[in-house]
Amino acid sequence: MNEQEANRSNFIREIIDEHNRSGRFGGRVHTRFPPEPNGYLHIGHAKSICLNFGIAQDYGGLTNLRFDDTNPVKEDTEYVESIKDTIRWLGFDWGEREYYASDYFEVLYQNAVRLIEKGKAYVCDLTPDEVREYRGTLTEPGRESPYRNRSVEENLDLFRRMRAGEFPDGSRTLRAKIDMASPNLNLRDPIMYRILHAEHHRTGNKWCIYPMYDYAHCVSDSVEGITHSICTLEFEDHRPLYDWFLDELELYHPQQIEFARLNLTYTVMSKRKLLQLVQQNYVSGWDDPRMPTLAGMRRRGYTPEAIRKFADVVGVAKNNSVVDMELLEHVLRDDLNLRAKRRMAVLKPLKVVLDNYPADQVEEFEVPDFPQDPQSTTSRKIPFGRELYIEREDFMEVPPPKYFRLALGSEVRLMNAYYITCTKVVKDADGQVIEVHCTYDPETRGGMSADGRKVKGTIHWVSAQRAIEAEVRLYENLFTKKDPYEVEEGQDFLDNLNPRSLEVLTSCKLEPALAQAVIGESYQFMRNGYFCLDSVDTREGQLVFNRTISLVDSWAKMQGTSA
Ligand code: ATP
Ligand code: MG
C-alpha cells in the first residue's frame, strides 16, 4: 500500500465496505455536501468536499450539492454562487444534482403533520427562554412543557395556523415529543419548527415557519436517497435524533457518519468569526488572500491540486485535532515547485551601475523556465544592460562575517549573467546607499568563469532599462498565535490579529517576461518565493502580484529533515 492508499483507507470506507458486503444499500454509494449559504467556503469545507466527492468517485457513486438553506435571515444568493464556483474550481462536479433544503419545505411540513398525527409532535407555547429553562442540564433532567399533552386535533389546528401566519415570531414552536429525561439533551423534545416572518432568498414570503436543521437534514437526506450522510463530530450526539425522525416517519434511512473537523493553526474557521473580520474591515473581503476561505486561498495562489493533496494527507479521523499551517504550506510548495515558471523579480530595488559595460549595449540571456527539470524545453529571454536592479538586502557596505552577497570590494555572481565586483557606493544626504557601482568580468558570461574562479554568492537582478514595475503584496499569518482564541481576560480573538499580515511593496522591478503573466498561473520569483497575479486588483497598466508563499519550508524544519 502506498502513502496515498494508506491515507485513503479510513474508517468511513470500512463502514461503506461493510454496507456493500451486507447489501444494506444495494451496493449504492451516494453522498452529499450540504453547505449553509451563510458565508464563503473555507479550507475545512474543502476537507468535507474532498471526502464526500472523493469517496463517491472511488465507489462509482454520486454526490449531491445541497444548500442547507433553512435559516433565511443569514443566507444569501451571493453565498450560493461563490460556493458553486469554489466547488467547481476545486475540481468536483455535482452534475444536475443541485438541491436546496427549501425545495423540501412542503415535504417537511407534510411529514411534520404525520408526526403530529402519530402523537409524536406538539405545538408548544413556551417562550425561547422558557424552553431553555425547561430543558434541564447535563446533570438534571428537563421538565415537560405544560403544552406537551395537547390533543392531536389542537396540534394540527395550531400548526396549520402557524403556517398561515396567525402568530408572531417566537410565540410558538413545533416540538418532537421524545423524552425530557433523556441523558442526551438533543432528545429532550427538540424544536422542529419555529415562527419567523422573514423573506427567504428562494421561497420569498411563502413561508413564515422554518424547519430546524436536525429535522430538515435527515428528511432531506432521505428524500434524495443519500446512503452515507457524512458530517462533523459535533453531530455525533445528534445522530439518535437523526435516526428517531426517520424511524418514526418510517422513511428511507441513510447512515450518518461523523468525522473530525479540520482545524488549522494561526487561523480561525468559524464562519461567524470570518464574517466579523469581513464586516469590520479587518480584511478586504471574503476573498482577502489572508483568509482561510477557498476564495482567499485561490486569490493568494493556492492550486486546487495542492488543496486536494492536503485533504488526502491529513486524512479523516474520529478525534478532533489541529493541523499545523506549515503542513498546508509544505504541500503547497511541493505542488508549486512543479508548476511555477522561474522568473527574476526585485522586490526592494537598489540600482547597480556596471561602469565597464558599454552604455548602449543590451544583450539577452536565454534561460529555461524550469531549470530544475531537464525534460522541460521552454525558456524566455532576459535582457541585460549597464544598469540593473538588485535587492537592497543583497548589498552591504560593511558585511558581517559569512555574508556572501555583494559588498564593497567583493565579487558575486549575477544569476545566469556575469560575475561583478563592487567598486564604489553612492549615498544620499542621509548616508543611505542609493546606488552601487561595479565592474563586470566579460569572461564570465552565463555566470561561469573561464579560469575556474569561484564566488560564494549568487544574486538575482533585473535590467533597469527593461524592467516592468509592479506592486507586490507579502503576507504573513492572519493571527500571531497558533490558537487565536487563546486570549487574556477581557480580550478576544481580534486582539491576536497580526499587524504585519500584509506588507505592500510598490515599484518592484520585474523581468519583462512577467508582462505576459496570466491570472491563475504561479511563478517562482527566484529566491523570493511563489507569486501570482492578483485577480481582483490587477488592471491594464497596473500589475499586482501576491506572494503565495515564501521558499522557506518551515514544515521540513519542524520535522528535522531540513529541505
Ligand atoms: P460554521 O459552524 O462555521 O457555520 P458549518 O459547519 O455550520 O460551519 P456548513 O456550511 O454547515 O458550515 O458546512 C457544510 C459542511 O462542511 C458540513 O457537512 C460540515 O460538517 C462541513 N464542515 C464545516 N467545517 C468543517 C471543517 N472545519 N472541517 C471539516 N468539515 C467541515
Ligand atoms: Mg452547519
In short:
It is built from 14 helices and 29 strands. With 563 residues, the chain is of the alpha/beta class.
Describe what you observe in this structure.
The protein has 563 residues and is an alpha/beta fold. The protein has 3 domains: 3-259, Rossmann fold (3-Layer(aba) Sandwich), CATH 3.40.50.620; 285-341 and 470-562, Ribosomal Protein L25, Chain P, CATH 2.40.240; 345-460, Ribosomal Protein L25, Chain P. The protein has 14 helices and 29 strands. It has a 7-stranded mixed sheet, covered by helices on one side. Strands 23-20-21-22-14-17-24 form a 7-stranded mixed sheet, with no helix packed on it. The protein binds adenosine-5'-triphosphate and magnesium ion. Adenosine-5'-triphosphate is lined by residues 34-36, 44-45, 47-48, 68, 231-232, 261-262, 269-271.
